[in-house]
């Protein structure tokens, strides 16, 4: 198996929704076009034509960028795909002028993000919908 990583591939909604359904157990279809058009970058991991991994780099239009939606299809996990996605996203964000790269994550992902040199920070969070 050879995984190909692509910067800004603009995958179709069908491909992203299929990945979301397996990676996040989220069956509700979404339209990603508005999200991707505003992103600083996004990286896709492909097994042939199939999207098997994804990360989005949102930004504030200035020096702050944000890692969002890092995911890999379950059958492709534990092969370094997520690590490569985040490493590429870090490099692209830097190359495109970001000075800070933020990421929020659940506690079980602490080791993963620490291994990619993200420092611990204090942050706040409020859920805006039920």
UniProtKB/TrEMBL annotation:
PROSITE patterns: GNAT. InterPro entries: Acyl_CoA_acyltransferase, GNAT_dom, NSI-like. The keyword Acyltransferase applies. Pfam families: Acetyltransf_1 (PF00583). Residues 3-130 form the N-acetyltransferase domain. The keyword Phosphoprotein does not apply. Keywords: Acyltransferase, Transferase. CDD domains: NAT_SF (cd04301). This is GNAT family N-acetyltransferase.
């Amino acid at each position: 198996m050879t995984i190909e990583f692509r910067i800004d591939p603009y995958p179709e909604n069908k491909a992203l929704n299929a990945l979301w359904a397996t990676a996040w157990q989220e069956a509700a279809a979404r339209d990603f076009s508005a999200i991707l058009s505003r992103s600083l970058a996004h990286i896709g991991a492909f097994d042939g034509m199939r999207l098997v991994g994804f990360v989005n780099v949102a930004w504030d239009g200035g020096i702050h960028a944000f890692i969002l939606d890092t995911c890999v299809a379950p059958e492709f996990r534990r092969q370094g795909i997520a690590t490569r996605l985040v490493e590429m996203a870090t490099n692209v964000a830097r190359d495109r002028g970001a000075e800070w790269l933020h990421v929020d994550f659940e506690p079980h992902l602490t080791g993963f993000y620490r291994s990619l040199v993200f420092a611990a920070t204090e942050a706040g969070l409020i859920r805006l919908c039920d």
